[in-house]
Amino acid sequence: MADSSSHYDIVILGGGSGGYACALRAAELGKKVALIEKDKVGGTCLHRGCIPTKALLHAAEIADQSREAAGFGVRASFDGIDVPAVHKYKDSVVDRLWKGLQGTISSRGVETVIGDGRLVSPTAVQVGDTVYEGSHVVLATGSEPRSLPGLAIDGERVITSDEALRLDRVPRSAVVLGGGVIGVEFASVWRSFGAEVTIVEMLPHLLPPEDEASQRLLERAFRRRGIGFQTGARFEGVKEAGDGVSVSLEGGKTIEAELMLSR
Predict the structure, then answer these.
(1) Whether the predicted pLDDT of 144 surpasses 60
(2) Which pLDDT does position 149 carry in this prediction?
(3) How many whole angstroms separate alpha carbon 170 and alpha carbon 194?
(4) Alpha-carbon distance 23 to 12, whole Å?
(5) In terms of CB atoms within 10 Å, which of 22, 135, 201, 216 comes out highest?
(6) Which of 143, 176, 203 is the last residue of a domain?
(7) Domain range for residue 222?
(8) Contact between 112 and 69 (Cβ < 8 Å)
(9) 73: which residues sit within 8 A by CB, 6+ positions away?
(10) pLDDT of 75-104, one tens digit each?
């Protein structure tokens, strides 16, 4: 039988952006809070999404600036990308913010529980042999990306953003399937690092949630930078082709690349 812990005003299952924001606000209002997370507080945004991609974008911006330095009268040269050093920088940014977040949560009196939580009643979450009872339970377990039917992610030639954040090289070429935020971020980074990139988006414009003016500005900037994109293009399949992949689109068009990022 599971042991019961002390009672909390709020038990939060999931320590990502929604979960820890809820915990901090509840603590600010004087509530006794337990925050349960199976991995690291901060969730996808901090560890595998917004923050690491922004660190990569900053490194990419530095690469672009080094190429353009002569236009400002600065003698500089672009000699290539040291991928391990880029990852070291990216990871240092994430680690610093994670430690800061942990300190903030602790200073507010929120109890952090690291473990795989399971909802066992409308007011209780079990972690291992301990049950955390609350007057209220907040479910903030996040989400998982969905793949397209029949699309197999092998982690090598067909990858997700998780693998892209750990990639040990700059790909020679890449197809980015999906022109949303994460897709265009990786397309921009890889292009700045020297890769040939093509985005495939089913809808009429990149960044589908944004207003049309912003979409057109982005598309214009990508054209200037040599980032290819196929909008209104429906993905049909991908297969190995030599040392890369061949991506098939509706209508018979194919695109060859070293890898495909599915977003």
Answers:
(1) yes
(2) 77
(3) 7
(4) 7
(5) 201
(6) 143
(7) 158-262
(8) no
(9) none
(10) 999 999 999 999 999 999 999 999 999 999
